[in-house]
Specification:
The complex is a heterodimer. Chain A is mainly α. Chain A is built from 25 helices and 5 strands. Chain A is 63% helix and 3% strand. Chain B folds into 2 domains: 181 residues, no CATH class; 108 residues, Cytochrome Bc1 Complex, Chain D, domain 2, CATH 1.10.760. Chain B has a two-stranded antiparallel ribbon. Chain B has a two-stranded antiparallel ribbon with strand order 3-4. Chain B has a two-stranded antiparallel ribbon with strand order 5-6. The longest helix of chain B has 38 residues. The chains are: A mainly alpha, B mainly alpha. Chains A and B meet through α2, α6, α7, α8 and α9 of A and α1, β3, β4, α7 and α8 of B.
Chain lengths: 734, 391
């Protein structure tokens, strides 16, 4: 035996070190798997899962009782909802990914993680990102782009930590003792490169202060980039890594061979190639050019089979093990997860068909759809893995199988009670929005449809509560399990090192070639995922005709710009869209349908994805200033029965005018045509406009100082959609 | 496997090229009047799907024929061979006829005045008969396959294999999986941390489903970008037109088409009480529940900014005064509802609101001719019948 100073050594608390046994026959490497990092990520998964679900429940309850916003900025729906989505996606599922990858990668590579130090940096880096995210989001620092709300310093930190993870993963892969990469690792590699690409491209923004920035892209282009990102965050953060985990933990738990190797190959490459293109299906019937919308639809349709390939390979792996499924709670969770995955990935393409999307979009149908995926696929697979993993790391038995079975039951009920009311609500509300009386009038005021939603929102909260109770039961169960065992932080293992000279034995499948070459594998997966984005972006950015300019569309005044930033800060886009689709019902309700050229100065775009409240694209001039004033102060006074929270702090906060010049300069850099040197005089115009609004309010017996934030918000709301109306006026005058 | 993948890519990749070119051309097809016809589209897609099915079945049959022919040759049973050749000839007939019919369909004249479901009569019949013919072929082919399978199964040397195939469960056959007992035959030498991999074939329904979605994608892309398929704006124009026609037809039948010139005081109690409900939920936001005013003016006093005549009030509600903050309500309420609302508003005159807003606008004194109008208005009975809902 001889000591070596390999990086591959367990943490300091054990004296064991990497040893190589030199014998005459062969050299068996002895080493240790790092379970400690897996354990930490598992704890983080559970903790953030509970936090994320609580945030979701709190946001859901606010739609039933708006008073729960506590009349405080940080606890209002518009800020809590991004905390919920970010916590669930990046904290709960993110840590779940890392837990599963750190466990399985080491074993599939027959090697300890490349560097314990990198593992630690990765772990603590990711947790600090989550904490920073929660704090900044609640404080109102948001980029205003869904699922990418975090501001530029955190974006940079995410990129750094993500690269740390990739480095650590690749280091491990490169020093592996297994010649070929297993399908799970293919998915991990694709996840790593694609998420890096998505995050970097979508987060290109221009900072104008220490914590705030404007999106580099505007309007239609911003929308396209954002939903390319948003859709593929679902694909490459919620789907591909979890498929990788499924490919490891399902055959392990079922003790069955994977069903079909060639299916893995086909569905893997097809999935990552096709997924990237499908982003525009989030923008059907919007101002996005027709050809891009078609691409979104057809690539979604083609995605059915590759997505189902994963489901088939999972479910058919259980052939001959279905008797086990009846008994083993781990497998039960996994089967429901895979089934939910199959349902969600079938529903997704259906929702991408124009005729279905015309009904489902902007409603709670979408919310139901994503929760089948999140609660079913991600949640249940995570629970299954945790129930399998924790007893193994702690060399013990699960504390209570009965409790885990109850968790399974309550969790499943939770999903059902969540999804059904939301499907129902979405379908009903959409039909109500579209319904005309025989006289040709809209049958329902928007507010009436909101009130019809309340019972469904209440039922949904019940479903969410059940699911949360299940998660808490699991937490207790795993806590007791941990207490009953002792962690094996460094698990001994041994394997033959790889021979440098590899000889192919017999006939092998052509795909084996790339499975031996991780770097090429990464390169080719990057190539495959780049194609879709390039084909969609390049014409949209370079070809003028895709976004016809409208002469009457002018940049926002300084006060409106400030108001817009407050609109973004308060997360208004979480409930209000700014995109009127070319439907008779929407034009009748909101006005002329939206045009691509109207959004050219919108950094970021604010089209929204859900109409809990009405569309605001043309709210400008619809009501007097005093209406908005009263409505923002006490929404119920102007819209009785509304679920909109109060925004009283806007009436106390003074508008930060010191930042105006920096904002103007940033916008100029982004190409917004303010005159040169306008930043120096912008505040003069701002004051003038503010005093005008103050004057309007005074006429209606409302007295407020002109330096309050509410004045800027009113200015912005009154501007929305005005430019087009101006054009129509001049056109009809001619 | 490899060929499948390459074939797949070769189908998808050409899609990308025309699309880039497409982007350069602005959407100028907007004026095309091709209206979207769901019946036609579903019929055509059904036709394509069936063609696809026939293709698949023919392929299977071809394989069967080859297997059978090889076996037959081995046994030198010439009479059997003749049978096979006959079968092959029989097979080629439907596809020949099929091509003929396809040509006919495309050549069919589009202009015959009577339409069926919006499709020219000849086209419709051609399509239907083609689909009927396709269904016939499918059944015929299935029958032939059954006969073939029976023929092959009667062969002694194929007997055991055939039995093995039969023993597989429906589900295994459906997925083309190797049965659990014979799993070793498809077990690869892969072993990752104890995880083994089988190499079952791709489930046929999955594979052909995948091909089908690719074909759908190509057809869809072509149709909506080059083939004259309706853009979202075409769809919008059609929807609005249909809506307007329905509305005009309805209004023509009822006496609902009051406007600011013909409006008179509404006296019907049900209409007024529903107007009152509307006022107290919607108008009250600006004018207060009792009409005393707030954001908007006091409606109970003698002073009116835009005139206090029933026609003026009707006009104010219908078109609004957007620059002063009164929005137009014509898209929210029917003319009759607006008439009732205006009448309700006028009925508030002289009431004593809790917190009246100061007077605004001109003094207005009610003229004498309004009541006379109402009394002679002939439509109140029909109005009563028509207006029942809308809370």
């Amino acid at each position: 035996m001889q000591n070596s100073s390999q990086p591959e050594k367990p943490s300091q608390d054990t004296s064991a070190q990497e040893v190589k046994l030199h014998s005459s026959v062969g050299e068996m490497d002895k080493f240790f798997y790092d379970n400690k990092i897996v354990k930490w990520f598992a704890y983080a998964t559970i903790f953030w899962g509970i936090v994320g679900m609580l945030a979701g429940l709190y946001a859901a309850l606010q739609l039933v009782w708006p008073a729960l916003s506590l009349n405080t900025a940080a606890t209002t729906f518009g800020r809590v909802r991004p905390v919920h989505t970010n916590a669930v996606i990046f904290a709960f599922v993110g840590n779940g990914i890392f837990m599963g990858v750190y466990y399985s990668l080491q074993r599939l590579c027959k090697a300890r993680m490349f560097s314990d130090k990198l593992s630690k940096i990765h772990f603590w880096g990711w947790q600090s990102i989550i904490v920073l995210a929660a704090v900044t989001l609640l404080a109102g620092y948001t980029s205003g782009k869904e699922y990418a709300e975090l501001e530029w310093p955190i974006d940079i930190l995410i990129a750094v930590v993500w690269v740390t993870f990739g480095w650590n993963m690749f280091g491990t892969i490169l020093k592996r003792r297994e010649r070929h990469l297993y399908v799970a690792i293919w998915f991990y590699i694709a996840t790593f490169v694609t998420v890096a690409m998505l995050h970097i491209v979508n987060s290109i923004e221009l900072p104008y202060s220490t914590l705030k920035s404007y999106s580099w892209y505007a309007g239609v282009q911003d929308a396209l980039v954002q939903w390319w990102y948003g859709h593929n965050a679902v694909a490459f953060f919620l789907t591909t890594p979890y498929l990788g985990l499924m490919y490891y933990f399902l055959p392990k738990a079922a003790n069955r061979p994977v069903y079909s190797y060639r299916l893995s190959i086909v569905h893997f490459w097809a999935l990552i190639f096709l997924y990237i293109w499908a982003g525009p299906h989030h923008l059907l019937y919007t101002a996005l050019p027709n050809w891009a919308q078609s691409l979104g639809t057809v690539f979604s349709v083609m995605l059915i089979a590759p997505s189902w390939g994963g489901m088939i390979n999972g479910l058919l792996t259980l052939r001959g093990a279905w008797d086990k499924v009846r008994e083993d709670v781990v497998l039960k969770f996994m089967v429901v997860a895979i089934t939910a995955y199959g349902m969600a990935t079938f529903e997704g393409p259906m929702l991408s068909l124009k005729s279905v999307n015309a009904i489902s979009h902007f409603t709670d149908w979408t919310i139901a759809h994503v929760h089948v995926g999140a609660l079913g696929w991600n949640g249940f697979l995570t629970f299954g893995i945790l129930y399998w993993l924790i007893p193994r790391i702690f060399k013990t038995q699960l504390y209570s199988n009965k409790l885990a079975n109850w968790h399974f039951l309550i969790g499943t009920l939770g999903i059902v009670f969540y999804a059904i009311p939301m499907y129902w609500a979405g379908f009903m509300q959409s039909l109500a929005w579209k319904e005309f009386t025989p006289e040709g009038q809209l049958k329902y005021q928007f507010l009436e449809t909101v009130q019809q939603m309340k019972p469904f929102y209440a039922m949904r909260s019940v479903g969410g509560t059940l699911y949360l109770i299940g998660a808490l039961m699991m937490t207790y169960n795993l806590f007791k399990t941990v207490r009953s065992g002792k962690a094996v932080n460094d698990e001994p293992a041994e394997a033959m090192p790889l021979n440098k000279n590899y000889q192919i034995q017999g006939k092998e499948h052509w795909h084996r070639w790339i499975e031996r070459r991780p770097v090429q594998f990464m390169f080719w997966s990057l190539v495959v995922v780049i194609i879709g984005g390039v084909v969609e972006f390049v014409p949209t950015f370079l070809v003028k005709s895709n976004i016809p300019t409208i002469a009457s569309v002018k940049p926002y005044t300084p006060l409106e710009l400030q108001g817009r930033d407050i609109y973004v800060r308060e997360g208004c886009y979480n409930c209000h869209s700014q995109m009127i689709r070319p439907f008779r019902s929407e034009v009748a309700r909101y006005g002329e349908y939206s045009k691509a050229g109207e959004f050219v100065y919108d950094h970021p775009f604010q089209w929204g994805s859900k109409r809990t409240g009405p569309d605001l694209a043309r709210v400008g001039g619809k009501y007097p200033d005093s209406w908005h004033f009263n409505h923002m102060y006490e929404p119920n006074s102007m819209s009785p029965g509304t679920v909109m929270p109060r925004y009283t702090w806007l009436f106390d906060n003074k508008l930060d005018t010191a930042i105006t010049p920096a904002k103007i300069r940033a916008m100029q850099t982004l190409g917004v045509p303010y005159p040169a040197g306008y930043d120096k005089v912008a505040n003069r115009d701002l004051m003038k406009q503010a005093e005008q609004i103050q004057g309007n309010l005074a006429k209606d017996k409302i007295n407020i100082k002109s330096d309050r934030e509410i004045i800027a918000v009113i200015a912005y709301l009154q501007r929305l959609g005005k430019d087009i109306k101006m054009e129509q006026k001049t056109a009809s005058a001619n | 496997m490899r060929t499948f993948f390459i074939r797949l890519l070769s189908i998808i990749m050409p899609l990308a090229v025309p699309l880039a070119a497409l982007a350069e051309e602005p959407v100028t097809q907007a004026d095309k009047s091709t209206s979207y016809n769901p019946v036609l589209i579903s019929l055509v897609s059904l036709m394509i799907v069936l063609l696809f099915v026939i293709g698949g079945i023919s392929y299977v049959l071809r394989q069967l024929v080859f297997t059978y022919r090889d076996k037959a040759r081995e046994e030198r049973k010439n009479n059997q061979l003749v049978k096979t050749i006959l079968l092959l000839i029989a097979l080629s007939i439907p596809s020949y006829v099929m091509a003929q019919t396809a040509a006919d369909t495309t050549a069919a004249a589009p202009h015959v005045s009577p339409y069926i479901n919006g499709i020219p009569r000849t086209d419709f019949y051609a399509l239907m008969s083609f689909i009927g013919f396709e269904i016939f072929i499918v059944f015929a082919l299935l029958l032939i396959i059954r006969t073939m399978v029976n023929l092959i199964r009667n062969k002694p040397e194929l007997h055991t294999e055939g039995k093995a195939i039969l023993r597989r469960s429906f589900f295994d056959r459906f997925n083309k999986s190797v049965s659990l007992e014979n799993e070793a035959a498809v077990l690869t030498d892969h072993d990752y941390d104890g995880i083994r991999e089988l190499d079952n074939d791709l489930p046929p329904w999955w594979k052909y489903g995948f091909y089908l979605t690719i074909i759908v994608a190509i057809v869809y892309t072509w149709y909506f970008n080059f083939g004259g398929g309706p853009t979202q704006f075409d769809e919008y124009r059609v929807e609005v037109q249909k809506g307007e026609e329905a509305k005009a037809a309805y209004l023509a039948k009822t006496a609902n088409n009051v406007d600011e010139n013909s409006v008179t005081m509404v006296t019907d109690a049900a209409d007024i009480s529903s107007a009152q409900a509307t006022f107290q939920t919607i108008c009250s936001a600006c004018h207060a529940k009792d009409g005393g005013g707030g954001v908007g003016p006091n409606l109970t006093d003698d002073y009116w900014i835009h005139g206090g005549n029933i026609k003026d009030v009707f006009k104010s509600i219908k078109y609004g005064w957007p620059e002063k903050g009164m929005k137009s309500w014509k898209d929210d309420f029917s003319p009759k509802q607006i008439a009732a609302l205006a009448s309700y508003v006028k009925s508030l005159h002289g009431s004593k609101p809790a917190a009246p807003k100061d007077k605004q606008g001109e003094l207005y004194v009610e003229g004498g001719n309004q009541t006379a109008d109402t009394a002679t208005h002939p439509t109140s009975a029909i109005e009563k019948k028509a207006l029942t809902k809308k809370g």
